[in-house]
Design brief:
The protein is α+β, with helices and mostly antiparallel strands and 312 residues long. It is 16% helix and 34% strand. It folds into two domains: 121 residues, Sandwich (Immunoglobulin-like); 127 residues, Immunoglobulin-like, CATH 2.60.40.
């Protein structure tokens, strides 16, 4: 027997010995205490929606979810108020068919359901009469009182930095008669940090949130900056790398373009990083919340809309 053979056998015995000492790891599946989750937004700008807040409860990671479970997650009969610096307004709780169409559509985007569906008892707290003074530069204090907790948060609506130009060209590679790429230009303000988000819509089928919908101005601070704006893809749709981010010629499209403050940006940035970097080898990432006493987000948006027909 050679030295190599002896080393090989020793290695095999060592592996077998160590393997026999390893105990099976069974992760704990016991249910943890539920936490309240807040998703609330206030907008300013042409076409902006009234302020609203969704309040739900978290569920254990290893859980079975059905319609009954989903309905039970909504927190009802809370007292939800927002102060705009002058007035304190109590939001009205509305459920499903009572929701204004704009709020129902946004709730559908957040929760991932068909806005025309009647299977889920979606409830939200809404500034029904649109009393709050929603304006650029405004500061808004949220307070939620439930039987379980008192929850607070503050957000602002920053300056709106619009899209100044939209430009279409052929996608990379072979010219296409059916697909086009969109470029947009903005004039970033160098006096402060700016944070951006966008949704897209085609042919009045509802706004869609892109996989990566937010950015800051780290790479173009204070510049007139042109960049491609990808069409948002539905998460439940078929992924095609040849058409990803491209627009169909002849379609009518709408862009919702938004500015937000840093705390609001940090929430979406960490959430989207966590969503888009999943898998067994991904790094752990904790989503940043700006809500005290609960999880989630109370965020302000400065909003603008842009409509185009994709040219042939």
């Amino acid at each position: 027997m050679t030295i190599k053979d002896i080393i090989f056998l020793a290695s095999v015995f060592a592996i077998l010995f160590l393997g026999g000492c390893i105990e099976d790891y069974v992760p704990s599946t016991e249910e943890t205490k539920q936490e309240i989750v807040v998703e609330g937004f206030i907008e300013a700008g042409e076409g902006s929606a009234p302020a609203y807040v969704l309040i739900t409860r978290s569920i254990p990671f290893l859980s079975t979810i059905d319609l009954t479970t989903f309905d039970d997650l909504f927190v009802n009969e809370a007292k939800v108020t927002v102060n705009d610096g002058t007035n304190t307004v109590e939001l009205t709780e509305l459920c499903l068919d009572d929701l204004p169409p704009a709020i129902k559509e946004i709730a559908a985007q957040i929760l991932g359901f068909d806005p025309d569906s009647t299977a889920l008892n979606i409830c939200a707290y809404v500034d029904l009469l649109d009393v709050l003074d929603r304006k650029i530069g405004g500061k808004y204090d949220l307070k939620i009182e439930t039987d379980e907790a008192v929850i607070t948060s503050t957000t602002t609506i920053p300056d709106f930095i619009p899209i100044t130009k939209l430009r279409w060209d052929d996608p990379p590679g072979t010219p296409s008669d059916t697909l086009a790429r969109l470029w947009v230009t903005i004039a970033d303000n160098e006096e402060e940090d700016n944070f951006y988000r966008y949704f897209t819509e085609e042919n009045n089928t509802g706004l869609v949130i892109p996989f990566s919908s937010v950015t800051d101005d780290s790479f173009f601070d204070g510049q007139d900056f042109e960049f491609p704006l990808n069409k948002a893809e539905r998460r439940d749709g078929d992924f095609d790398p040849n058409t990803f981010g491209l627009y169909n010629r002849g379609d009518s499209i709408r862009i919702k373009w938004m500015n937000m403050d840093q705390a609001h940006f940090d929430f979406w940035n960490t959430l989207e990083f966590s969503r888009n970097n999943s898998g067994p080898f991904s790094a752990f990432n904790r989503v940043t919340s700006n809500v005290d006493g609960a999880l989630g987000i109370w965020g302000g948006y400065a909003v603008g809309y842009y409509e185009e027909v994709v040219p042939f």
